[in-house]
Amino acid sequence: MPPVFDAGKCDGCGICDLHCPIDVIAIDEERRLAFARYSEECWHCGSCRQDCPTGAVDIVFPKKMLLV
Ligand code: SF4
Ligand code: SF4
Q1: Contact 54, 9 (CB under 8 A)
Q2: What is the DSSP track for 4-64?
Q3: What is the pLDDT of residue 68?
Q4: pLDDT computed for residue 8 by the predictor
Q5: Which of 15, 24, 37 for mutating ligand 2's site (highest number of atoms within 8 Å of CB)?
Q6: Which of 1, 12, 44, 49 could bridge across to 60 with cysteines, CB 3.0–4.6 Å?
Q7: Please, what are the domains in the chain?
């Protein structure tokens, strides 16, 4: 699963986009909201969630990653 962005908390600052190592995230400038443009490429590294200043990012891990 890609990162999930809470529209009520995200202000479109772009920090998550800058910190994502593989450029999964983009910013909808009109809505001032982050979104995942290459969701299948997400590594689930957690940088976007860790660095978001408003706590707007949640990451849902695929079941197969949790069953190791
Ligand atoms: S860092 Fe947080 S507030 Fe900023 S664009 Fe990303 S999700 Fe939105
Ligand atoms: S979890 Fe990592 S790879 Fe996935 S979108 Fe966030 S920063 Fe990018």
Answers
A1: yes
A2: EE-TTT-----HHHHH-TT--EEEETTTTEEEESSGGG-----HHHHH-TT--EEE---HH
A3: 61
A4: 98
A5: 24
A6: 1
A7: 3-66 (3.30.70.20)
CA-17 nearest atom, ligand 1? 6
| Residue listed under structure tokens 């908390």 | 9
Say if residues 50 and 64 touch (Cβ distance below 8 Å): no
Distance from C-alpha of 68 to C-alpha of 64, rounded to nearest angstrom:
7
pTM, 2 dp: 0.90
List of residues 6+ apart from 45 with CB closer than 8 A: 21
Choosing from 4, 5, 50, 58 the residue with most ligand 1 atoms within 8 A of its CB, the one to mutate for a pocket test is: 5
> Tokens standing for 68?
């190791």
